[in-house]
């Protein structure tokens, strides 16, 4: 069997033709296809505002940065504030808060779903706490019912990192529609891809304006790329100490970035978005086949335990090797890799064990125990749409061959 990767892009001639059209049109920065993608994605998610960016990591950065705007007054994020997150995370879910001088409060994960342990959140909320920012790990929704209730009770912002979870639902509703802001990634590993790319969504017009400002160099102007004078008074503004009539396209109200993507990316993404319903169905089917197989070997493997409200569009198939098993996670994954089966650890495992985070200022909600179990014993297999019945049958065969040594 040829190598079975954990993830990859699935595309056809439509993506290629869209990209060729962009090349021929000569408008290579954000343009026609970006606007069409934002409109179609807004319909799919049933949200008011979508802003495309150049990666999921940039989406997280601009999401948090947008909440530092002075327009939010006392609720504005500022250095010294605290935000709640989890130690089992992809780094760029956590990093934006650190960049802006906030103190992360790390909460351990729940081994039933690898998400933030909601039972430990409320006891660490203080007057300094302003935000909850966490990801739906591998597509599994975290407990949105409880987290949304906590956010409302303590007047906290909620940013849902949905980079792994496009198409996942909680209680019949798409994740990403519960919080103040949600982020998505279109890296090739994700449910749809643009090669690179991401988006930030919100229903709040003030947040949307702030997102666009931080994304687009920090400028106050809200004209689309290539457009002028949307406000119809481009040379009629007076802001701060800038002379009256200064070109509004070059007035800056935030310390921002340039995080836009190209129309090549958006063109590919638009074709991918049409395929999303099939991709969701295929990922769920592949997960089901793996689950039915691994459930037969419960003495060796701990699988995910989800509530009826959680309906993931799976990013991967997560497995925790039982600590009492006669083999280790690494022994199994090395065997799989030697037999052309791709594996991945659960992102950072315990992020606090990594060198980059040894000197940051942070707090924890009690002891971080489960994150270490994830770091040492957990991994995931691919379920992306190019994996078919033949590949799954091969993976099962190799696993049974490995386990036969321990009967």
Give keywords.
alpha/beta; Aspartate Aminotransferase, domain 2; Aspartate Aminotransferase, domain 1; 8-stranded mixed β-sheet; 3-stranded antiparallel β-sheet; 33% helix
Q: Nearest-angstrom radius of gyration?
A: 22 Å
Structural class: alpha/beta
Number of strand segments: 14
The CATH class designation of the largest domain is Alpha Beta
Number of helices: 10
Characterise this structure.
The chain is α/β, with parallel strands linked by helices. The chain folds into 2 domains: 13-266, Type I PLP-dependent aspartate aminotransferase-like (Major domain) (Aspartate Aminotransferase, domain 2), CATH 3.40.640.10; 277-406, Aspartate Aminotransferase, domain 1. The chain is 33% helix and 14% strand. It has an 8-stranded mixed beta sheet, sandwiched between helices. The protein has a 3-stranded antiparallel beta sheet with strand order 7-6-11, with no helix packed on it. Helix 1 (13-25) packs antiparallel against helix 7 and helix 3 runs parallel beside helix 4. The longest helix is centred in the last third of the chain and has 32 residues, at 263-294. The model has no long low-confidence stretch (mean pLDDT 96).
